[in-house]
Design brief:
With about 280 residues, the protein is mainly alpha-helical. Helix content is about 60%, strand content about 0%.
Length: about 280
């Protein structure tokens, strides 16, 4: 009776251990499935990020990244004391002249020394001493410890979130024109046309001084003040808005406010000349 009781207790203990093992295996399988699902999501997310970054680089004129260079020869140097590839090793002979255990058959490889059935010595120095081979170029060193896959995936997800944020910031900056990016289109156009008209006023003052020195005739001065310089200022402002007023992203042409620019340049230069004449008469 005691034997049957011990058998029943051991059977229950074995069933409990098997149940716990099955539960642990199911939990481990679920964890692995969750890790694989997370890895697939991160892979698709990183692929989408790479595609979007490629589009942004193409939009702003950056060349694509060159493909990674093909790996070189990863074979390490020959260990000291070992024969070069393809070298013929002389067969060891016994005292009687018959081939020994280390004899090399015709066309075969050299047999390593050692007792049959035990195994050959490691390649290296004579006598079977193990020689540490140097690390080959391009072969990564072994990691110190096994990293936690969940922690690695969490870090990768954090970096992906940071990349998404930086991509959004880059897109917001790329959708703004390089010239006065925080200004409204109307204020930007007015500032550009006014600046070009101011440059035309400076040229007009230079021509006035040249006319006073009899270097430029009055007809040329009046023609430049009333027609030439205003039109030149307007064309310059129009070209500046077309070149530096367009954002890097987006194919639509920003508004240039042609009537506003034409009126600003046509009125500002002649009004500045009239103000110069009025000031000159008041001073005299």
């Amino acid at each position: 009776m005691s034997t049957f009781s011990e058998y029943a207790a051991l059977a229950r203990q074995l069933a409990d251990q098997r149940r716990e093992t099955d539960q642990d295996a199911a939990a481990e399988a679920g964890r692995r499935r969750a890790l694989h699902t997370t890895l697939d999501q991160l892979t698709r997310r990183l692929a989408a990020q790479s595609h979007r970054l490629g589009q942004l680089g193409h939009a702003i004129g950056l060349p694509a990244d060159p493909p990674p260079a093909a790996g070189g020869d990863r074979s390490g140097p020959t260990a000291p004391g070992s024969s070069a590839p393809g070298a013929t090793v002389a067969a060891a002979t016994s005292s009687g002249g018959t081939p020994g255990a280390g004899a090399v058959p015709d066309g075969g490889a050299a047999a390593a020394p050692g007792r049959p059935g035990v195994g050959a010595y490691p390649p290296g120095a004579p006598g079977g001493a193990v020689v540490a081979l140097p690390t080959a170029a391009g072969v990564p060193a072994p990691r110190a410890g096994v990293a936690d896959p969940a922690a690695e995936l969490a870090e990768a997800r954090r970096l992906a979130d940071e990349t998404d944020r930086l991509v959004q910031v880059s897109e917001a900056v790329a959708r703004q024109p390089p010239l006065l990016p925080t200004w409204s289109p109307l204020a930007r156009a007015l500032a550009v046309y006014a600046g070009c008209a101011a440059a035309g006023v400076v040229l007009m003052l230079i021509m006035v001084v040249a006319a006073d020195l009899a270097m430029v005739g009055l007809g040329a001065l009046y023609a430049a003040t009333c027609a030439g310089l205003p039109v030149l200022s307007f064309v310059a402002g129009y070209l500046v808005l077309g070149r530096w007023g367009r954002p890097a992203l987006g194919s639509e042409q920003p508004p240039r406010f042609v009537p506003l620019g034409f009126v600003t340049c046509v009125l500002l230069v002649p009004l500045a000349y009239c103000g110069y004449l009025l000031l000159f008469r008041l001073v005299r």
